[in-house]
Every structure is written in C-alpha cells, then in structure tokens.
Amino acid sequence: MPAVSFQQVGKTYNGARGSFRALDGVSFDIGEGEFFGLLGPNGAGKTTLISVLAGLTRATEGRVTVMGHDVQADAAAARKALGIVPQELVFDPFFSVRETLRIQSGYFGVKGNDAWIDEVLAELGLADKANANMRQLSGGMKRRVLVAQALVHKPPVIVLDEPTAGVDVELRQTLWAFIGRLNKQGHTVLLTTHYLEEAEALCHRIGMLKQGRLVALERTATLLSATHSTMLRFKTDQALPAALAAQARSTGRIVQLRARDAAEVESFLATLRGAGVGVEDLEIGRADLEDVFVQIMQGRSPVAAPAQGVGASA
Ligand SMILES: Nc1ncnc2c1ncn2[C@@H]1O[C@H](COP(=O)(O)OP(=O)(O)O)[C@@H](O)[C@H]1O
Ligand SMILES: [Mg+2]
C-alpha cells in the first residue's frame, strides 16, 4: 500500500473572472518511508495538491488516499495520518508554544503527550520558548512551532510546503536533521521546495509540476545521471553557428551547452573557433538538478515525461 496515492487528480477553481485549471490529471504514488520532493515554479499547483491531500480543498476529479484512507470518504482517518506544515504562518497569538502544541494534540485525541512535546521542542531548538506567547516569537521561531504542531500526533506521513522559504541556515539544518531522522525511522515525507539543492540532497524521488500537470517523475539519482554530463558555459556577443544554436540555452550574452563527454566539448570549441565566434569567461562544469529542472520546464528534457495517468511507485 502506498503512503499517498494521487489518482487522476484535477482541480478547477471557479471565480468571478472565469475558471482556472490548477491541477490536471495528476497521478503518482509515494511509497511508505519515501522522502519525496515535489518541485515546480510558483503557481504550478503544489499548494493546491497539498490542500487536496489535507482535505482543505475538494478535488474536481480524481481520488487521493493517505495510508489507504480516502481523503473525502474517510477524511478523519486520512487527516490523522498526516502532519502538515503549511506554507502560510497561521496561529492563535494568545496561546503559549506549549499550549498551542497541547491543543493540537487534543484535536487529534492524543492524551498525556508532554514527553513527546518536550522532545519535539528540544529537537527544533524551541525548548526555551515553551512558555513564550506565540505573538512574541520571530518569524523563524513561528515556523519551528508550525513544524512542531504538525508532528504532535506522530503522523506516519509528514508534508512540508516550502518550509524553508525565507528561513535562516540554522533552522534549515535543524529542520533537515530532525526530519531526516524521522524519515529513517519510517515516516514518509512529502516536501515542496524552491531550493533545488535541498531536493537533491534529501529526496529519494522527485516529481515536477508545471501548470498543473506532472511533467517529470523520477528517482533523484536518475534525474541527476541524465545530467552526468558536462556543462560548457561562456559569454559571447556573436551569433552561434546553427548547429550549436539549436542545442544551446542562452540568457542574454551567457550561453550554456550540454556536452556528453570531453570529446564533445572539444568539438563544440572547434565549431565555435571555425565560425570565428569569440568566447569570454569560459567555464566547464557538471550539470545539476537546476539544469534538469530548467530543461524540463522548457520542455527540453533528457528525461521522458511520465505518461498521463501512469503512477510509479518507489
Ligand atoms: N482559491 C483559489 N482560487 C482561484 N485560484 C487559485 C486559488 N488558489 C490557487 N489558485 C491558483 O492556482 C494556481 C496554483 O496555485 P498554487 O497551488 O498555490 O501553486 P504553487 O503552490 O505551486 O505556487 C495559481 O495560478 C493560483 O493563482
Ligand atoms: Mg505554494
């Protein structure tokens, strides 16, 4: 049984200015114990997909299950299996940190939870803030409480929606050390992030959303091995010869060319020299997840897009 299963999920928002298709035929499974990364530019539908998973938004089509529980038909059981760290900071400012966590425990029917609450507070560097009121905390500290709140009932599936957007390096490290340990203990993690290096370091598998559609679904290692190629970067003021222009990624004067191996790098340089194109600031480096991401978003991926409706497991 997958920890999370999205089956042909579609979502159309209907508003005063017409309807908007935020999700379209999204299907994939997340295996139990997997650390899964959901990437995509702003507006791709990541938060909408998580809202559907959390039962906060109703999908227009399709079906979603969490640990086998349908998020609509079996909403309470599905919700209890999830710990969700939302993208937006929302709190009752009048409670202390400990009260906030006790109330959340009560909401899930968990009693006598103080030992676990203390452990979570310590792990997240919040132990000395337990009695502080929520309104006294900095943004970074509030973010930590949001994480603690998601974990009070020890959910098997932990969902983090851009948890590190705008947070300091220390919190990122604290958070990833803790979430990494929970994942090793068997918790499934679904993470959305803008930080591709984070996804590269943490996630076993990655799905990429673009305009509401799943455009890539691969093991992180496979995505990266598709780019175990060399990236040639340089600046030029001149037009590239047609043979190179077709495969180059150009941003203003900056040109990037992907090469399979050293011999191809040499052949690119010979072609440039032959065409009399002058290059400056020549660099040769490894491609990374960011290169894959840009290529997939431009529809020029070396990795095949998943067929619509086919979900793959770990
Ligand atoms: N309640 C809503 N009503 C109408 N449109 C919405 C609503 N929520 C989100 N959208 C639109 O759906 C698209 C996907 O948004 P979202 O899921 O927040 O993307 P992401 O989290 O990937 O940035 C965006 O174009 C957004 O403007
Ligand atoms: Mg979002």
From TrEMBL:
Per its UniProt record, what Pfam families does this chain match? ABC_tran
What's the name of the protein?
Answer: ABC transporter ATP-binding protein
Native species: Pseudaquabacterium inlustre
| Domain spans labelled ABC transporter | 4-236
What keywords were assigned to this record? Answer: ATP-binding, Cell membrane, Membrane, Nucleotide-binding, Transport
Kindly list the GO molecular function terms attached to this UniProt entry: ATP binding
